[in-house]
Amino acid sequence: MPKIKNRMIRQHIESKIGKALTDEEFDYFSSLLRNKSVAPKEVLIHAGDRCSKLYFVQKGALHSFLTDDVGNAHVVQLAFEGHWISDMYSFHMDQPALFTIETLEPCELIVFEKSAIAEACDRLHKIERFFRILAQNAYAAAQYRIARSYSADTESRYLELVDKNPDIVLRVPQFLIASYLGVKPQSLSRIRKQMAERR
Amino acid sequence: MPKIKNRMIRQHIESKIGKALTDEEFDYFSSLLRNKSVAPKEVLIHAGDRCSKLYFVQKGALHSFLTDDVGNAHVVQLAFEGHWISDMYSFHMDQPALFTIETLEPCELIVFEKSAIAEACDRLHKIERFFRILAQNAYAAAQYRIARSYSADTESRYLELVDKNPDIVLRVPQFLIASYLGVKPQSLSRIRKQMAERR
DNA sequence: CGTCTATTTGAATGTACTCAAAAGCGGTGG
DNA sequence: CCACCGCTTTTGAGTACATTCAAATAGACG
Known about the structure:
Order of helices and strands of chain A: HHHEEEEEEHEEHHHHHH
Radius of gyration of chain A: 18 Å
Oligomer: homodimer
CATH architecture of the domain at 2-124 in chain A: Sandwich
Number of helices of chain A: 10
Number of strands of chain A: 8
CATH class of the domain at 2-124 in chain A: Mainly Beta
Largest interface: A-B, 36 and 35 residues
Strand order of the largest sheet of chain A: 1-8-3-6
Low-confidence stretches of chain A: none
CATH superfamily of the domain at 2-124 in chain A: Jelly Rolls
Distance between the termini of chain A: 50 Å
Strand content of chain A: 15-25%
Shape of chain A: globular
Helix content of chain A: 40-55%
Largest sheet of chain A: 4 strands, antiparallel
């Protein structure tokens, strides 16, 4: 029953734009999107493909990563309930995707096609605003992450990550967290050991 | 004469949204912004302040940087003609600025106040769209930069930077370029030496 | 219970770092 | 015009920290 399943996204939109959608507006918007269930370890987007979708996470966890020339994977984003994930570079720039996006858990997603978003933005000013705010928030978060990567060491960033996302250590394997923080799993293991030894 | 001075921004907006603004629309928009000339080495935003402005660079060069706990500066953005610069984190999140923004050359800027942008976005759907696309592009560029920082070494990123911005070596001191690339000036100097030795 | 993967630990290595000093470069004033 | 000054860039030498390689331990799952 999509009305129930999409309640989360309606609240999400309304809270971002700071005003309510009419039922008519939301029904229209709702008709443009679809729900998708995905098993763990499924790849939604392969690096190199074109990505013309945005995914909203209703339930589950995913990560995006890139593989460098020597074959090492680097986690770029970890996404949980209420987050968005996609290859924004590919989506907005019409270029091959930089990242691969893969589920970590069974996921309930809402899929937004690029064409549907374009249409909704044309038709409803409120939806255009929503996506403006979404992009701004994402950009601000990216800036913050860049800032932290310069100004804080791995230990601080690990603690901040766990603090903001307490269940991350249960839901995401440590080697992916290490990768997200930009270090090797051995290094994160040693950092955690040091922290434990200091109590 | 503002009409002439703002022609650049009008073209910029129209090219981003893919349609023309009426004279009426642009005159209204134009009335909300102001021009500003700034001498080199002037600080526009101090880290820690609230930043409620966006700057569009008509002429000149600027950089944003943050200072870490041990006093090292890290360049986050280099902005030239046709670019935007601000502390987007502060601007969108209403938090203290992460970065300091400083001119490198004499600059001609267009200043957008947050309140003016909010008003223009309310009034004109086209302007809302413009700022959506702007934020999306900025985010995509940030993702690309993160991807490159993982997958390419400093030498490749230096070459890419110079390639995309040939006059950067003339306009920006090398130690700032090094900082932008995330290394010490000594390291960039050595990298350049190695490149020269390989011919 | 056995297999596969993740995590931990150890030892050696390497790359960028710090400290330090010299050389280069640009602008100012004598 | 040249000498000096401040700042940037280069170069050298030693260091530190994450990395690599390797192996052992621990956990998860059929």
